[in-house]
Protein backbone atom coordinates (compact mmCIF):
# COMPACT_ATOMS: atom_id res chain seq x y z
CA UNK A 1 0.00 0.00 0.00
CA UNK A 2 1.73 3.01 -1.28
CA UNK A 3 -0.75 5.80 -1.68
CA UNK A 4 -1.75 8.40 0.87
CA UNK A 5 -0.14 11.29 -0.92
CA UNK A 6 -3.13 11.65 -3.27
CA UNK A 7 -5.57 14.46 -2.51
CA UNK A 8 -8.12 12.39 -0.60
CA UNK A 9 -11.47 13.85 0.36
CA UNK A 10 -13.98 15.26 -2.13
CA UNK A 11 -13.84 13.22 -5.34
CA UNK A 12 -12.37 15.08 -8.29
CA UNK A 13 -14.16 15.02 -11.64
CA UNK A 14 -11.99 13.37 -14.34
CA UNK A 15 -11.79 16.65 -16.28
CA UNK A 16 -10.21 18.32 -13.25
CA UNK A 17 -7.44 15.74 -12.93
CA UNK A 18 -4.16 16.72 -14.59
CA UNK A 19 -1.44 14.13 -15.21
CA UNK A 20 2.06 14.92 -16.41
CA UNK A 21 3.74 12.11 -18.37
CA UNK A 22 7.48 12.27 -19.13
CA UNK A 23 8.22 9.81 -21.93
CA UNK A 24 11.66 8.42 -22.81
CA UNK A 25 11.59 9.37 -26.48
CA UNK A 26 10.49 7.89 -29.80
CA UNK A 27 13.41 5.51 -30.25
CA UNK A 28 11.54 2.36 -31.27
CA UNK A 29 8.31 0.86 -32.55
CA UNK A 30 7.64 -0.25 -28.98
CA UNK A 31 7.91 3.33 -27.73
CA UNK A 32 5.61 4.70 -30.44
CA UNK A 33 2.98 2.08 -29.57
CA UNK A 34 3.40 2.84 -25.87
CA UNK A 35 2.94 6.60 -26.39
CA UNK A 36 -0.16 6.08 -28.53
CA UNK A 37 -1.70 3.68 -26.03
CA UNK A 38 -1.14 6.05 -23.11
CA UNK A 39 -2.50 9.07 -25.01
CA UNK A 40 -5.56 7.09 -26.17
CA UNK A 41 -6.27 5.76 -22.69
CA UNK A 42 -6.12 9.22 -21.11
CA UNK A 43 -8.25 10.73 -23.88
CA UNK A 44 -10.88 8.05 -23.20
CA UNK A 45 -10.70 8.66 -19.45
CA UNK A 46 -11.55 12.35 -19.71
CA UNK A 47 -8.50 13.32 -17.64
CA UNK A 48 -6.06 15.95 -18.87
CA UNK A 49 -2.68 14.61 -19.99
CA UNK A 50 0.43 16.73 -20.37
CA UNK A 51 2.98 14.84 -22.43
CA UNK A 52 6.69 15.40 -23.01
CA UNK A 53 9.31 13.51 -25.06
CA UNK A 54 12.83 13.51 -23.58
CA UNK A 55 14.62 12.24 -26.71
CA UNK A 56 16.38 9.61 -24.58
CA UNK A 57 18.07 12.25 -22.42
CA UNK A 58 17.77 12.13 -18.65
CA UNK A 59 18.33 15.88 -18.28
CA UNK A 60 15.27 16.53 -20.49
CA UNK A 61 13.17 14.17 -18.41
CA UNK A 62 14.26 15.86 -15.20
CA UNK A 63 13.34 19.24 -16.69
CA UNK A 64 9.91 17.93 -17.70
CA UNK A 65 9.27 16.52 -14.22
CA UNK A 66 10.32 19.81 -12.59
CA UNK A 67 7.96 21.68 -14.87
CA UNK A 68 5.09 19.34 -13.90
CA UNK A 69 5.90 20.01 -10.25
CA UNK A 70 5.83 23.78 -10.86
CA UNK A 71 2.51 23.45 -12.68
CA UNK A 72 1.10 21.53 -9.73
CA UNK A 73 -0.22 18.53 -11.65
CA UNK A 74 -2.14 15.89 -9.65
CA UNK A 75 0.06 12.94 -10.61
CA UNK A 76 3.36 12.57 -12.44
CA UNK A 77 4.01 9.40 -14.43
CA UNK A 78 7.24 8.63 -16.23
CA UNK A 79 9.37 5.96 -17.81
CA UNK A 80 12.91 6.62 -16.58
CA UNK A 81 15.41 6.57 -19.44
CA UNK A 82 18.14 5.23 -17.11
CA UNK A 83 17.92 3.64 -13.66
CA UNK A 84 20.02 5.96 -11.51
CA UNK A 85 20.09 9.66 -10.67
CA UNK A 86 16.44 10.27 -9.80
CA UNK A 87 16.45 10.75 -6.04
CA UNK A 88 16.71 14.56 -6.03
CA UNK A 89 13.89 15.29 -8.46
CA UNK A 90 11.64 12.56 -7.02
CA UNK A 91 12.20 14.06 -3.57
CA UNK A 92 11.07 17.44 -4.95
CA UNK A 93 7.86 15.81 -6.23
CA UNK A 94 7.30 14.12 -2.88
CA UNK A 95 7.85 17.36 -0.97
CA UNK A 96 5.32 19.05 -3.26
CA UNK A 97 2.82 16.28 -2.41
CA UNK A 98 2.66 15.01 -6.00
CA UNK A 99 2.56 11.21 -6.28
CA UNK A 100 4.77 9.62 -8.93
CA UNK A 101 3.96 6.46 -10.89
CA UNK A 102 6.74 4.65 -12.76
CA UNK A 103 5.71 3.06 -16.03
CA UNK A 104 7.69 0.55 -18.06
CA UNK A 105 11.17 1.14 -16.55
CA UNK A 106 12.40 1.02 -12.98
CA UNK A 107 14.58 3.41 -10.98
CA UNK A 108 17.47 2.22 -8.86
CA UNK A 109 16.88 4.00 -5.55
CA UNK A 110 17.14 2.90 -1.95
CA UNK A 111 14.09 4.99 -1.06
CA UNK A 112 10.99 3.31 -2.46
CA UNK A 113 8.74 5.94 -0.88
CA UNK A 114 9.71 8.19 -3.82
CA UNK A 115 7.08 6.55 -6.05
CA UNK A 116 3.69 5.01 -5.38
CA UNK A 117 3.67 2.26 -7.98
CA UNK A 118 5.74 0.68 -10.75
CA UNK A 119 3.82 -0.73 -13.72
CA UNK A 120 5.75 -2.73 -16.31
CA UNK A 121 7.41 -5.94 -17.45
CA UNK A 122 9.86 -8.26 -15.77
CA UNK A 123 12.91 -7.62 -17.96
CA UNK A 124 15.05 -10.27 -16.27
CA UNK A 125 12.45 -12.87 -17.16
CA UNK A 126 12.45 -11.63 -20.76
CA UNK A 127 16.23 -12.11 -20.98
CA UNK A 128 15.87 -15.58 -19.46
CA UNK A 129 13.24 -16.56 -22.03
CA UNK A 130 15.55 -15.43 -24.85
CA UNK A 131 18.41 -17.41 -23.27
CA UNK A 132 16.25 -20.51 -22.90
CA UNK A 133 15.36 -20.45 -26.59
CA UNK A 134 19.07 -20.29 -27.43
CA UNK A 135 19.88 -23.21 -25.10
CA UNK A 136 17.13 -25.34 -26.69
CA UNK A 137 18.00 -24.34 -30.26
CA UNK A 138 21.63 -25.45 -29.90
CA UNK A 139 21.11 -28.44 -27.64
CA UNK A 140 22.62 -30.86 -30.17
CA UNK A 141 25.65 -28.72 -31.01
CA UNK A 142 28.94 -29.19 -29.18
CA UNK A 143 31.00 -26.54 -31.05
CA UNK A 144 31.10 -23.07 -29.53
CA UNK A 145 28.13 -20.77 -30.26
CA UNK A 146 29.55 -17.28 -30.74
CA UNK A 147 27.05 -14.62 -29.81
CA UNK A 148 26.86 -10.90 -30.53
CA UNK A 149 24.70 -8.96 -28.08
CA UNK A 150 23.10 -5.66 -29.06
CA UNK A 151 22.40 -3.88 -25.80
CA UNK A 152 19.69 -1.31 -25.16
CA UNK A 153 20.42 2.19 -23.89
CA UNK A 154 23.32 2.06 -21.43
CA UNK A 155 22.05 2.28 -17.86
CA UNK A 156 18.39 1.61 -18.77
CA UNK A 157 16.57 -1.03 -16.73
CA UNK A 158 15.64 -3.17 -19.76
CA UNK A 159 19.25 -3.17 -21.02
CA UNK A 160 20.69 -4.13 -17.63
CA UNK A 161 18.06 -6.75 -16.81
CA UNK A 162 17.77 -8.39 -20.23
CA UNK A 163 21.54 -8.86 -20.35
CA UNK A 164 21.48 -10.32 -16.85
CA UNK A 165 18.60 -12.73 -17.51
CA UNK A 166 20.14 -13.95 -20.77
CA UNK A 167 23.59 -14.47 -19.21
CA UNK A 168 22.01 -16.33 -16.27
CA UNK A 169 20.56 -18.99 -18.54
CA UNK A 170 23.33 -19.46 -21.13
CA UNK A 171 26.10 -19.69 -18.55
CA UNK A 172 24.99 -23.27 -17.77
CA UNK A 173 26.95 -24.36 -20.88
CA UNK A 174 30.40 -22.88 -21.64
CA UNK A 175 29.92 -23.48 -25.38
CA UNK A 176 27.84 -20.28 -25.38
CA UNK A 177 30.20 -17.34 -25.71
CA UNK A 178 29.18 -13.70 -25.92
CA UNK A 179 32.07 -12.57 -28.12
CA UNK A 180 30.94 -8.93 -28.39
CA UNK A 181 28.36 -6.79 -26.63
CA UNK A 182 27.67 -3.17 -27.42
CA UNK A 183 24.84 -0.66 -27.16
CA UNK A 184 22.69 0.18 -30.17
CA UNK A 185 20.55 2.54 -28.07
CA UNK A 186 17.34 0.62 -28.84
CA UNK A 187 17.26 2.13 -32.36
CA UNK A 188 17.24 0.55 -35.80
CA UNK A 189 20.14 2.75 -36.98
CA UNK A 190 22.14 1.85 -33.88
CA UNK A 191 21.52 -1.87 -34.36
CA UNK A 192 22.63 -1.68 -37.98
CA UNK A 193 25.78 0.31 -37.30
CA UNK A 194 26.94 -1.82 -34.36
CA UNK A 195 26.24 -5.08 -36.20
CA UNK A 196 28.21 -3.91 -39.23
CA UNK A 197 31.26 -3.27 -37.06
CA UNK A 198 30.90 -6.35 -34.86
CA UNK A 199 30.44 -8.76 -37.78
CA UNK A 200 33.76 -7.54 -39.16
CA UNK A 201 35.61 -8.15 -35.91
CA UNK A 202 33.72 -11.41 -35.23
CA UNK A 203 33.17 -13.11 -38.60
CA UNK A 204 32.52 -16.46 -36.90
CA UNK A 205 29.56 -15.24 -34.85
CA UNK A 206 26.38 -17.18 -35.64
CA UNK A 207 23.83 -15.65 -33.30
CA UNK A 208 22.67 -12.14 -32.46
CA UNK A 209 20.72 -11.39 -29.29
CA UNK A 210 19.20 -7.90 -29.62
CA UNK A 211 17.56 -6.26 -26.61
CA UNK A 212 14.72 -5.04 -28.85
CA UNK A 213 13.11 -5.65 -32.25
CA UNK A 214 14.30 -2.38 -33.77
CA UNK A 215 17.98 -3.19 -33.20
CA UNK A 216 17.30 -6.69 -34.58
CA UNK A 217 15.75 -5.13 -37.69
CA UNK A 218 18.83 -2.95 -38.13
CA UNK A 219 21.00 -6.05 -37.65
CA UNK A 220 19.13 -7.83 -40.47
CA UNK A 221 20.21 -5.09 -42.88
CA UNK A 222 23.84 -5.36 -41.74
CA UNK A 223 23.83 -9.17 -41.99
CA UNK A 224 22.45 -9.00 -45.54
CA UNK A 225 24.97 -6.32 -46.49
CA UNK A 226 27.72 -8.68 -45.28
CA UNK A 227 26.43 -11.28 -47.75
CA UNK A 228 24.92 -13.57 -45.10
CA UNK A 229 21.38 -14.82 -44.65
CA UNK A 230 19.63 -13.56 -41.49
CA UNK A 231 17.72 -16.30 -39.72
CA UNK A 232 19.99 -18.99 -41.28
CA UNK A 233 23.72 -18.09 -41.35
CA UNK A 234 23.13 -15.79 -38.42
CA UNK A 235 20.21 -16.48 -36.16
CA UNK A 236 18.53 -13.53 -34.47
CA UNK A 237 16.61 -13.38 -31.18
CA UNK A 238 14.92 -10.18 -30.07
CA UNK A 239 12.51 -8.76 -27.49
CA UNK A 240 9.28 -6.69 -27.94
CA UNK A 241 7.15 -8.32 -30.68
CA UNK A 242 6.06 -5.13 -32.43
CA UNK A 243 4.55 -5.52 -35.88
CA UNK A 244 7.73 -5.00 -37.93
CA UNK A 245 9.55 -7.49 -35.72
CA UNK A 246 6.73 -10.01 -36.07
CA UNK A 247 6.80 -9.60 -39.88
CA UNK A 248 10.54 -10.30 -39.96
CA UNK A 249 9.98 -13.30 -37.69
CA UNK A 250 7.22 -14.61 -39.93
CA UNK A 251 9.52 -14.06 -42.96
CA UNK A 252 12.21 -16.19 -41.32
CA UNK A 253 14.72 -13.35 -40.83
CA UNK A 254 14.33 -13.35 -37.05
CA UNK A 255 14.20 -16.72 -35.26
CA UNK A 256 12.46 -15.98 -31.97
CA UNK A 257 10.87 -12.99 -30.21
CA UNK A 258 10.10 -12.55 -26.52
CA UNK A 259 7.05 -10.33 -26.08
CA UNK A 260 7.16 -7.11 -24.07
CA UNK A 261 3.82 -5.32 -24.02
CA UNK A 262 3.75 -1.54 -24.59
CA UNK A 263 0.01 -1.41 -23.87
CA UNK A 264 0.20 0.14 -20.41
CA UNK A 265 -2.33 2.95 -20.91
CA UNK A 266 -5.48 1.46 -19.35
CA UNK A 267 -3.63 0.16 -16.30
CA UNK A 268 -1.93 3.53 -15.83
CA UNK A 269 -5.28 5.32 -15.98
CA UNK A 270 -6.64 2.96 -13.30
CA UNK A 271 -3.65 3.56 -11.04
CA UNK A 272 -3.94 7.34 -11.42
CA UNK A 273 -7.66 7.28 -10.60
CA UNK A 274 -7.00 5.32 -7.42
CA UNK A 275 -4.09 7.50 -6.35
CA UNK A 276 -6.11 10.70 -6.84
CA UNK A 277 -9.00 9.17 -4.87
CA UNK A 278 -6.61 8.43 -2.02
CA UNK A 279 -6.97 4.67 -2.44
CA UNK A 280 -4.02 2.33 -2.05
CA UNK A 281 -2.34 0.82 -5.11
CA UNK A 282 -0.01 -2.13 -5.61
CA UNK A 283 3.63 -1.16 -5.41
CA UNK A 284 4.57 -3.44 -8.32
CA UNK A 285 2.22 -4.28 -11.18
CA UNK A 286 3.51 -6.76 -13.76
CA UNK A 287 2.31 -7.04 -17.34
CA UNK A 288 1.56 -10.44 -18.86
CA UNK A 289 3.64 -11.57 -21.78
CA UNK A 290 4.32 -14.50 -24.07
CA UNK A 291 6.91 -15.55 -26.69
CA UNK A 292 6.68 -16.15 -30.46
CA UNK A 293 8.23 -18.68 -32.83
CA UNK A 294 8.12 -18.08 -36.60
CA UNK A 295 4.92 -20.13 -36.97
CA UNK A 296 3.28 -18.38 -34.05
CA UNK A 297 4.17 -14.97 -35.53
CA UNK A 298 2.51 -15.90 -38.82
CA UNK A 299 -0.63 -16.89 -36.94
CA UNK A 300 -0.65 -13.79 -34.70
CA UNK A 301 0.17 -11.13 -37.32
CA UNK A 302 -3.30 -10.56 -38.81
CA UNK A 303 -4.71 -9.48 -35.44
CA UNK A 304 -1.62 -7.84 -33.96
CA UNK A 305 -2.54 -4.37 -32.66
CA UNK A 306 0.84 -2.67 -32.82
O1 LIG B 1 11.92 -2.90 -25.25
C1 LIG B 1 12.45 -0.88 -26.39
C2 LIG B 1 12.22 0.52 -26.02
O2 LIG B 1 11.60 0.13 -22.00
C3 LIG B 1 10.60 -1.94 -22.48
O3 LIG B 1 12.33 0.53 -24.61
C4 LIG B 1 11.07 -0.66 -23.00
C5 LIG B 1 12.09 -0.76 -24.13
C6 LIG B 1 11.66 -1.55 -25.33
O4 LIG B 1 12.98 1.42 -26.67
O5 LIG B 1 12.02 -1.15 -27.69
From TrEMBL:
<feature type="domain" description="Periplasmic binding protein">
    <location>
        <begin position="20"/>
        <end position="279"/>
    </location>
</feature>
<comment type="similarity">
    <text>Belongs to the bacterial solute-binding protein 2 family.</text>
</comment>
<dbReference type="Pfam" id="PF13407">
    <property type="entry name" value="Peripla_BP_4"/>
</dbReference>
<dbReference type="InterPro" id="IPR028082">
    <property type="entry name" value="Peripla_BP_I"/>
</dbReference>
<dbReference type="InterPro" id="IPR025997">
    <property type="entry name" value="SBP_2_dom"/>
</dbReference>
<keyword id="KW-0732">Signal</keyword>
<protein>
    <submittedName>
        <fullName>ABC transporter substrate-binding protein</fullName>
    </submittedName>
</protein>
Amino acid sequence: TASGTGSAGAAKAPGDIVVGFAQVGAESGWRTANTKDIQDAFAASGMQLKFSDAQQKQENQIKAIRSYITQGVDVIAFSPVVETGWDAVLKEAKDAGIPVVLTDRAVDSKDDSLYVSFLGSDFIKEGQKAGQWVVDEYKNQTDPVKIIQLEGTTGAAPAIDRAEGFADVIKADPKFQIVASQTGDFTRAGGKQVTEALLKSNPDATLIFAHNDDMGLGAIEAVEAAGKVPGKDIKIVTIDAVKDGMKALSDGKINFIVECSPLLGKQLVDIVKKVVAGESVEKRILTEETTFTQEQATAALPTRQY
